[in-house]
Amino acid sequence: EDHTLRPLPLPHASLSKSKLDYGCCRFNFLSVRTPNMASAIVSKIVDAPEDHAAAVAELAALVKSKGVAALNDDSVEKLVAVMEDGNKKKGPQRAAALAAFSAITENIGSAGDPFVVPMLAAVLKLCADKEKSVREAAETAGPGAIGALPAYATKTVVPKLLQSMDNSCRSPTVVGALSTLQKLAESNPTQVAQCLPEIVPVVSACMVDITEAVKVQAKVTMQKCCVAIGNKDIEKVIPTIIEAVSNISQVPETIHALASCTFVQTVEGSALAIIVPLLSRGFKEKNTAIKRQCAKIVANMSKLVEHPMEAAAFLPELLPALDKARVEVSDPEARDVCEQAFKQLGRIEEKVKTDKSKKADHATISGHVKKHLAGSVDAHLEKSVDFASHVICSLCDANEYDGKAWEKNVKGYLTPFRDGATVDATLKAVNEQCVVDLAPEVEVEEEEDAEELCNCKFTLAYGSKILLHNTEMKLLRGKRYGLLGGNDSGKTTLMRAIANEQVEGFPPGSELRTVFVEADILGDLSDLPCIDYIFADVKIKSANIPRDEIKTMLSTVGFSEKMIGEPVTFLSGGWRMKLALARAMLQKADILLMDEPTNHLDVLNVQWTMDYINSLKHVTSVIVSHDSKLLDQCCTHILEIKDLKLYTTKGNLSSFVAANPDAKAYFELKSSKLTFNFPQPGFIEGIKSKGKALMKMAQCEFTYPVNDKATITDITVQVSLSSRVACVGVNGAGKSTMIKLLTGEMYPTKGTVWKHPNARVAYVAQHAFHHIEQHLTKTPNEYIRWRYEHGEDREATQKVTMTLTEEEEKVCKLPVQIDSVDAKGNAIKIKRVIDRLTGARKDDKKAKEYLYEVAWEGIGYEGNTYMSQSKLEKIGFKKHCKLVDEKVTMREGAYKRPLTQVNVEKHLEDVGLDREFGSHHRMSALSGGQKVKVVLAASLWNQPHIIILDEPTNYLDRESLGALATAIENFEGGVVMITHNNDFCSKLCPETWVLERKEDGIGHLDCKGDPEWMKNVSSEKVEFKAMEEMVDAFGNTVKVKAPKKVLSRQEKKKRAKIRAAKIASGQEVSDDEDEDWE
User: Which of 344, 431, 565, 945 is the most buried (most CB within 10 A)?
Assistant: First the structure.
């Protein structure tokens, strides 16, 4: 066939040589040029503006028939030149040019966007023209130009509109640009929302413009632009935030409203765009509370940023504000919140620097398009390729690679220049190339020859708190995973969620058997024998496991025949953990979830547990532990909860710490910024040195009722204000039994136990949670106020040594013979029945004992008398006297610190429990570490002289342990602790009580210590600081007047002499006896 170039039988038409396809007999009609045709019509329109209607119609018909080929001349440039001509006399020409522009936009379709969009700035500028007809035409033409705009072309148009909102632009132009943006937001809300980081600063400035019309339109436009933010957490607050932009007086209240939001969804750039300006303004407020709220919002939201680059644009604005606040804010707690938020943003900044995500490059994509289109590209096609490449960039940045979306948004720009098949092939090739070029770099995981048990992506929350967000977890059979994370990070919650089948995507129990191993014993089953306790478990019953198999398993983990039949309550903490392990082993688990498996265990049993875990070759273990040795010797992988993500690292703890030095904080026994502050003990009458005993045990022995042989024997110890004692021994030696005798929880079978009547003792039991297990529906704050609401410690009054038996109650109701006088004054003996001890007590210094006020049955309060302690004890009122002693010792503390919500809140914070958990979360929702802090705080409320801790390190992370160690060091009273944590006790306790079973199977005590230290500290004088102020029930701080000084006889004579001399010399003398006469 003849492919020779020939003129077409069309007026003023010729073929473009650059458009010929010599490999085909056909060519695209739109490769035909129409030189000077559109240009001539445009000239006709502007040259005769008064009669331009016919010419505009001609232009419209040409554009409709020829499409973008009609604009392949200087017609666009001519129109722009006319519109930009500011000559006052050429208003009609500008109006005619706008009419021509509208004719083009209405008839050319989306294919004309590459030629129309660049004209927008000139059109919007005419919204401020002096001619009314021009203004009206411009106000219509601007929004009309984007009517057919594809969604993903939005990012290309928005910058053009923002340019027309510049300060240099006149107000009507700004209003026109805002109106056009509003229409764009209505037609393409999602894409406009993605442009909010660029839109918000510009439109916000317009919202405070001096021109009312600009302010009104800017507010409406901002509301429309924010419709598609898509973050349900803040959608109710967005109108308030927009209002605060134009009215800064509303900033504080808006920040409070935002702070009350619970952040759950992934935070994207669109949400940050509207919130960050508000936060920046908040950091400039003088109010410290507002700055703290802003920092808290930053910390919470930044943890939910999935892609660091989403936040990159806002870091230069927020980091300096936080950096300044963490230094200048006066409140230490608020400074700490700012510090944490600053560190959180710092981590995001580091991720931004190392971010490997890829953005679409316009020049690269343009090159791909030209390459695959084939043939030469003239200036006319170049404009369409350039615009189409911008749209492709938007598609790629939105991770939209669907072929239909590309066809809908891009194809129309290229089909005027190439046939449909070529364009389709081009888009497909470019799409595939972009997928390859922009694919995120994925770290290649080392292949492991093990069965994959789970591979899921999930979000985990507890109440309103997000613990893990869009995180992944992969577990392999036979591997042992150490789970790391600070207290309150969600370690135990994650394991419970897995065990309860609450983790999305985790295989159900019918496919994968998962068992949660914990040593806590259910209260209603605690009296059952060990074998019955396991047999009563629901999962054991459902598995139809026979009793013989349970008995065999208990024997395997070390239970004797006798222990198997004994109640669970008789077991020490170490044996309870073995019981839990036996129950788990019976269920033939695929995955064992172990929460602090070495708690309460001595060295030998810790080694046994590690050997057992390592022997599980076909069972996967997930272990939470603060025992670094266990994690180092057992773990094949480390799971770390950090910034709401779960990170998996292959290797044991040592290799993990080597790669992540910050992880040392989980295991170093030190406190960074976390501090515990124990209340200091008060004055005790008669105690002048720290070495004087406040508690004693002498030759004590104890035998449990079901045993024939004693558990401990010949125990003699004493505790003073100087005591720093570590009680050590193997599991089952009787350490906790000895401590219970010392604290009055139990009576000794033989021997005597004594406590100073004015000494206050705090006792945290080994199974610490038993203190609170009946109060899990209370908040920690409510529990402490309940426990001390009547001026006494309810826990203390429930001890065996404080509770009356039926026999004792009968004895107390017997008549008592007392001395009295008859009506004539003669001494007589009478018998009366004691109704109660009133709680009043006074000191009989001659007899060196206390006298207690007694109320008698049938006699009014005026008949109350005082009776000595020795006599009351003889007639069966020993426990009553102890109760009175407890109440009296509580009075000073209650006076210093009334039992109010605010005071209890502060007290809980002093032991590391944030007010969020202390006052607003029920105890059933707290983690193990938090519950330990509650029990510790509750026992310390009465400002004890002696603190006794049975396994205080259980459930506490290393930072909390460091804070606890520092608090114990600074405590002015005595401390006794049972612990298997050698790091902890060796640092604090120079005195040791070693309890071990001898050949007779009975626990015997050996006291050891540093004699020089004990001698020095025992001789220290007791110096109690007098109370200078108190906080009353209304929160008022009241100064306390110091007690009057008791003067000697010589001092009284000297004072009288000075007073007489002053009077004789005519000086005025005060009647105040406390005046200083020196």
Answer: 945
